[in-house]
Amino acid sequence: KLWMALIGKTQAQIGEEKGKGMLKPMGLTFVAGLIMSYALSFVIGSLILQTPLEAMGVAFLLWLGFVAGTHSGYYLFESRPNKLFLITTGYYLVTMLLIAVLFSFWR
To answer: pTM of the prediction?
Structure first.
């Protein structure tokens, strides 16, 4: 609910949009997630990491540099709320940390 308020949409508007061509954005988001997972696994696999915590550290630094760093420009120049920045980039942080743990065990 907080996310909807921050982007200025109501539950009814979100409900209306669900039926209108959601397959393409969802499919592209899935493909983007696969690409991010592959890139992160490549970086983790290229380094000599001993523990999942080290893999999480690498994921955190990549998130900080590439996700939080690039998104901060959008939010600063477009005067978006800080809470929306935290929700959006926080999603990617959690995702990247989980991927890092998964791939650290997979090797």
So the answer is: 0.83
Instruction: Pull the structure tokens for residue 44.
Output: 């983790």
CB 81 within 8 A of CB 6: yes
Q: How far apart are CA 104 and CA 102, in angstroms?
A: 6
To 5 degrees, how large is the angle CA 100–CA 106–CA 107?
A: 100
Tokens 């991927």 correspond to 99
pLDDT digits (tens, 9 = 90+) for 15-42: 777 767 778 888 999 999 999 999 999 9
CB 52 within 8 A of CB 105: yes
Helices (H), 1-107: 2-7, 11-18, 23-46, 52-62, 69-77, 82-106
Dist CA 32 CA 14 (whole Å): 22
Structure tokens at 63: 């998130």
